[in-house]
Amino acid sequence: MVVHETTPFNAEPPLAVLARADITPVSDFYSRNHGPVPKIEPRDWRLSVNGLVERELTLTYDELTSHFTPHTLIATLQCAGNRRAGFNEIEEIEGEDPWRGGATSTAQWRGTRLADVLSAAGVTDPGGLHVAFAAPDVSELASPPQEYGSSIPLSKALSPEVLLAWEMNGEPLPEVHGGPVRVVVPGYIGARSVKWVTAITVQDKPSDNYFQAQAYHVLPADADPETTEPSAGISLSSIALNSEILVPEDGASVSAGRQTVRGYAFAGDGRFIERVDVSLDGGRSWRQAELQAQRSPWSWRMWSCDADLAPGGVEIVARAWDSSGTMQPESAAKLWNPKGYANNSWPRARVTVCE
Ligand code: MTE
């Protein structure tokens, strides 16, 4: 793993490691934490469901895992800071980890549908309400330090893909990924998939937790995060169409001859990857990559493209298209924002081809 910070633990797999499988092994799955990882035994874990509900609930781990029908779903998680390093080439993003394209991974999650738990609490009406999640890990990033929390609209919370997951790739959910139980909100930025979730509150407005109300907001390029209004900017929820070149990596040297360029493309919330174009001349001409099968409506799609490379320098570029006919924007410079979120510009790999 490429470790950005040890405390809190923040690490991403090298891009070539991510390219090995469309379901990421747990040991290679990126890890994004804002505070120390709490240790909660399943027998001690409780989930409180409260707020605008007909019946408040307190569920044990056994109740959550055995009183509801379990569901399995392959879904990609992606941090809003994925590919931030590309922004640093334009202007340094202060005080944020320089995530490359590995702050995203895909797992098979198993858990209870959040909709089933909300239904047991008598929640039915999606009209304008929000579902807030609370967790016990305390982050020093908030001032004063605050436990992690976030929220999603009730309409999304009632969608069948949103899980309270207790298994990842067929194993009990590891502590660092939120065990014993985390929320998985496919198609939304990873920040909404709250780990170690202990309370769910149905309320009439988004969570006022620092990580919803202030962090994960896209500020205008000329805003100063130190002086700007704390709630300013666009609060991120749905993930934007994105892709990355995993092999060969930017800056790599490869041998002349036949090489396979590989990468991922992810369409986000309710859209699908339709096409990935690859350029071997910096974006002047394009050919279509081969797409691997879509493992689930909520997962990325791996792609590959064979290329005959002659000695010298080559700039490989990719661009993904989704089912709404949208293509990734070309320029990272046009997307640059002070906290470095949502870089979904065309990925580029400048590669030296040796004899
Ligand atoms: N949940 C809690 N309780 N604390 C956190 O710091 N980080 C969030 C989210 N859930 C976080 C959290 C962010 S920003 C991301 S991208 C994902 O968890 C990362 O999940 P992972 O570490 O399993 O990859």
UniProtKB/TrEMBL annotation:
It comes from Mycobacterium intermedium. This is Sulfite oxidase. Its cofactor is Mo-molybdopterin. InterPro entries: Ig_E-set (IPR014756), MoCF_OxRdtse_dimer (IPR005066), Mopterin_OxRdtase_euk (IPR008335), OxRdtase_Mopterin-bd_dom (IPR000572), OxRdtase_Mopterin-bd_sf (IPR036374). Pfam families: Mo-co_dimer, Oxidored_molyb. Keywords: Metal-binding, Molybdenum, Oxidoreductase. GO terms for biological process: sulfur compound metabolic process. GO terms for molecular function: heme binding; molybdenum ion binding; molybdopterin cofactor binding; sulfite oxidase activity. Residues 239-353 form the Moybdenum cofactor oxidoreductase dimerisation domain. Residues 34-211 form the Oxidoreductase molybdopterin-binding domain.
